[in-house]
C-alpha cells in the first residue's frame, strides 16, 4: 500500500453516515483475533502434520516507507510504537511464522541480526554453525511466532539465513536484481526465491528465475488505483470509494474489519501467469501477500484502529504451511519450497474440517507432491469454524482444476457437497480453489446492507499436485 491512497480515502470517507439501528438484534461479538491454526483441520494431524499460519510479505520499520513514511525517529532508531503494533498483531492473530520482507533501501545497510528487531523475551534461533537464522516472539498468552528475514524488491527472497555477500553497496545491487544470478545468490544465502506483485511481472522473468513461489494475490494490487486499472483491469477508484464506508462511526456502522469485502477480488492476471508456469512444467507454490506497511490509511475506524492496522491486515488473510513442527523454521521453509501449503482469507471465516489430499494403493500424497497417474484427488470441504447458529449460512464451493502441459485450464469438477473426488488420470498440475458466499457476514455490515456478503469470493487457493 502507498501513502498516495490516503487523500482519496479521506475524501470519500468524511461523509459516511448511518441510521439509528438500536432496534436491531445484538450480533455475536466480532473476534478481532484468530484461533490457533491447528483448528483448521485434524485430518492433517492424522498424517503427522500440523497447520502453521504464516504471513509471507511483511514490512517492519526497516522498510523506508513503513509507518506512514516515518520508520525511524530523530536518532535513527526504529519507530517503536509502529514496531509494537506489528508485534502485537502477530500475537493477536496467532501467526506462527512471519516472513519479513523489508525493502533494501534500509535493510541492506543493517547487520543481519539487527533486522529481527528482538525485544523483551524474544529468543534467537540459530543453526548448527551458531548463526542466527530466525527469532521467536513469545506472546503474553504463550503463543510463539517465528520471525525470519527477507527482502521485497523486484524479487522477494524469503527466509534468508544471512545477508547476500559483499559490501553494503554490493548487497543493494543484488537485492535489486531480478535475474537468475540474483536468484542463485538468494538461495546460496539460505533463502527461497519468491515473487511479489505477480500481476506486474512478465512470464519471461518468472520463467528465467524459476521462482519457488509467487504471489497469486496481493493486497496492495487490490487497492491501489493505478495497479487496479493497469494490471487487474478493475475500476481504478472502486475499492477506495467502497472501503471508505467502513470509516463510519455512527450508530449502525459496519464492522470495520469487513472493509476488505469492498475490494476483495481474484488477482486474475497473477493466477493466469501461475497457470502458464505450471503448464510449462514448473513447480511453483502460490501465496497471498499482505504487503503490510501500516502506511496507507491512518484514519481511525470505529474500533479505534487505523484502517490498515497490522492487526486488521493479518486478520484478513494468510498462508497455511503443513509441517510436523511449527516451531522449526527449517520445516516451514521446506513446506513452502515443496508447496505443501495453501492461502486462506480468514476474514471470511477460519476453515474447519478442511483436507486436500491425493491417494492411491501406495499411500497418501500431500499438497505439492508428485503423484502417480491414476491417483485420486479428494477434497473434504471445510465449514466456517464456530459459526453462530443465528447467522445466515454461507455457500461454500470447491473446484478441482487441471492445468494441462501447455497451459490449458480445465475445471474437472465443482461441488457444494461435503466432498469432492476426481481422478488424476493425465499429466499436468492439479490445484483446488474453494470459494464462499459469506452470507454469515451480512448482519455485520449494518446500514450498508448485505450486498457485499452475497458475492462469491475466493476463500482458499491450494498449491498444486503434479502428475508427471
CATH level 1 class label: Alpha Beta
State Rg. Answer: 21 Å
Count of alpha/pi helices: 12
Number of strands: 22
CATH topology tier name: TIM Barrel
The major sheet is characterized as: 12 strands, mixed
Description:
There is one protein chain. With 468 residues, this protein is of the alpha+beta class. It has one domain: Metal-dependent hydrolases (TIM Barrel), CATH 3.20.20. Helix content is 21%, strand content 25%. It has twelve helices and 22 strands. The protein has helices at 6-13, 80-92, 104-107, 168-175, 180-188, 203-209, 219-223, 225-232, 238-243, 268-279, 310-316, 329-338; strands at residues 50-58, 97-100, 123-126, 132-138, 144-148, 156-158, 192-195, 213-218, 285-289, 318-323, 341-344, 351-352, 355-360, 363-365, 375-380, 383-384, 395-403, 409-415, 419-424, 428-437, 457-462, 465-467. The strands form four sheets. Strands 1, 2, 3, 4, 5, 10, 11, 17, 18, 20, 21 and 22 form a twelve-stranded mixed beta sheet that branches. A four-stranded mixed beta sheet has the order 6-7-8-9. Strands 14-13-15-19 form a four-stranded antiparallel beta sheet, with no helix packed on it. A hairpin with a 5-residue loop joins strand 17 and strand 18 (409-415). The chain starts with 5 loop residues before the first helix and ends with a strand. 51% of the residues are buried. Residues 1-22 have low confidence and may be disordered.
